[in-house]
Amino acid sequence: MTAATEVPAGRHGDGAAPVIFALATGAGRAAIAVMRISGAGSDAILRSLCGGLPEPRRASLRGIWRRDADGGQGVLLDRAVVLWFPGPNSYTGEDSAELHLHAGPAVISGVADALVALGARPAEPGEFTRRAFASGRLDLVQAEGIADLIDAETEAQRRQALAQADGAQSRLYEDWAARLRTALAHQEALIDFPDEDLPPEVEDELLGTIAGLRDEMQAYLDDGSQGERLRRGLVFAIVGEPNVGKSSLLNALAQRDAAIVSSRAGTTRDAIEVRVVLGDAPVTLVDTAGLRETEDEIEAEGVRRALFHVKQADCVIHVFSGAAVPDKVGPDSIMVCNKIDEVAAPPGITGISVRSGEGMETLRDVLAQRARDLTQGRAAAPLTRARHRAAIEETARHLARAADDAWPEVRGEEMRLAMRALGRLTGAVDVEALLDTVFGQFCIGK
């Protein structure tokens, strides 16, 4: 190769994507840091760093070197476990490698500098997974499942995200797409051969398929947003009149002093939020200002914000004390009578004493069951994002129009629009702007 055509190991003159690298492990003091490398040219970089390629998919202890400009041995940066994954049998579908380094900042910095010198560049957020999508290793729905798996806080979130990453949703959507493709082929036959006296059962079967798909999608959409709620977490608002123990209840459920507690009415002026886990779902508890008429401008604003949180909440915990049950703030409020060490709770109402702890385990069970009811349905592959819901709603609308239209050409166009909407869901059609949004939410190194 002449001087005019020479390029570094990680760059290519044929327009191929450059080699990228990033830490796959978090920042902070640790024993091991995993550096991921991917792209055409990773083999040349690995040979330069450690003197040769390990056997594919077998861990090998190697010295990691920063070579001299003249190709000499250079400086030993670390002794690390090296893994080599030749494409297409890798996460990204490209030639890839992992360096399991000692996690000292000097080691990481030195290896990163050596990679840049060899022509690689730092990866952008989500770039490894985006390359996996581009190479067909996974679809867009699976990629979003991987992002959710990284962010999972609870066991239920982990199960849901792992099922999505493993393709549970994608298999359902692909089944719909395959049936729709078959129906569209039959519709095209009816349009192209109107004088061929095709059997009437062809159109009957076509209309039956369209109606069946539309009904399946409508039933799938009617899920109470359980998967979406589990993914983002729930909001439980604690409301009630002043001085009934709302802040004390928040502290008891959070098991720490998150809110100021005082016998003076109106202590809480603004909403206080605490994240807990109830029923294997992440729940944000919101302690709100006491609901009452007041001339105090600041307290009145607190009451207004409390009512706003009631409207936004997935569940309202309505706390009161005494024998008289107040009117519910929301139709699905959980009524809780506090201070049962002073006055017994009315019949059928959950009674507690935050002061003594009496009834608190029962209340936690009630709240956990409500969280499960709101997040854990029967669907094996629940909807998890508003984007998915919007795409399926659009698909169902086009199918409904196709079923209602007697003109074959119009019906065929509606079916094609349905196919396009379903294709955008998994990334089977051009969705470049959408890809930037989806993969931009990933962390560096994934």
UniProtKB/TrEMBL annotation:
It comes from the Bacteria. (6S)-5-formyl-5,6,7,8-tetrahydrofolate binds at residues 36, 98, 137, 446. Gene3D superfamilies: P-loop containing nucleotide triphosphate hydrolases, Probable tRNA modification gtpase trme, domain 1, tRNA modification GTPase MnmE domain 2. Pfam families: MMR_HSR1, MnmE_helical, TrmE_N. Its EC number is 3.6.-.-. One of its GO terms (molecular function) is GTP binding. GTP binds at residues 243-248, 262-268, 287-290. This is tRNA modification GTPase MnmE. It comes from Novacetimonas maltaceti. Keywords: Cytoplasm, GTP-binding, Hydrolase, Magnesium, Metal-binding, Nucleotide-binding, Potassium, tRNA processing. It is found in: Cytoplasm.
